[in-house]
Amino acid sequence: MALDSGTLTVTVEAAYDLKDPEWVGRQDPYCVIRVGGQTFRTRTAVDGGRNPVWNETFRFSLPDATDTDVVDLVLKDDQLVEHDATLGAASIPLAKARQAGRDRARAPVISPQHHRHHGTVSLALLWEPGSCQQLQPDDDDDAMGPRQLAKEGGREEDEEEAEQQEAQLGKEQQRHHHHHHGGGTPRERVDVVEFVAQRPVA
Q1: To the nearest 10°, the Cα dihedral for 129, 133, 139, 145?
Q2: Region Disordered: start and end of each range (predicted)?
Q3: Residue 187's pLDDT is what?
Q4: Which of 20, 170, 171, 173 lies 20 to 30 Å from 104 when distance is taken between CA atoms?
Q5: Which CATH architecture has domain 6-132?
């Protein structure tokens, strides 16, 4: 079922009783969170072992066309030498969060190899309908964030103000030369206008 537009805030709290494949020391788990086509990951809980704690919050901007009704998670062990080992996966439905505006959930972590239950992961969800906004920068160089759009929107007013200042300075320059020299040369007046036009627009 397609989600209405809105913002989903996901807080990844902790995991409990995870499988620990480490023979020496404790594993360093982290969590990858996916909603629709957007993906985030937590920091690595160094020496988190079987009960890592993250308490990290992520915000997902969900437009009308987003066709998803779950939060998908993959828990992994951060390994420096080898590829990161997958500890398990979990999915949490969004139905309750959408209806009530919030949800606290603890989902089973399922092993990808044997499809067995290896611990749980806890999340807090907050759903804000109708508040969809681009919260993460787009990889596309042409994409604009909210601050860039605001800057673009005020650029026309800045240019209009600059033109008015140029015209005023030009008139004052003409009066100045006319008073002291019986009229200034066109080149002197144009130089002043060009200098003002090249000033940076805030």
Answers
A1: -170
A2: 132-202
A3: 43
A4: 20
A5: Sandwich (2.60)
Residue 126 and residue 8 in contact, taking contact as beta carbons nearer than 8 Å: yes
Of 51, 49, 43, the C-alpha closest to 24 is: 49
| Number of neighbouring beta carbons within 10 Å of residue 112 | 12
Q: Are strands 117-129 and 70-77 parallel, antiparallel or unpaired?
A: unpaired
Residue 152 has pLDDT above 90, yes or no: no
- As a whole number of angstroms, the distance between CA 22 and CA 78 comes to 11
Report field, pTM of the whole predicted structure over 0.85 = no
The two tokens of residue 75 are 């828990």
28: nearest Cα among 54, 50, 47: 47
Our measurement of the distance from residue 2's CA atom to the centroid of its chain's CA atoms, rounded to an integer in Å, reads 22
DSSP assignment letter at 132:
-
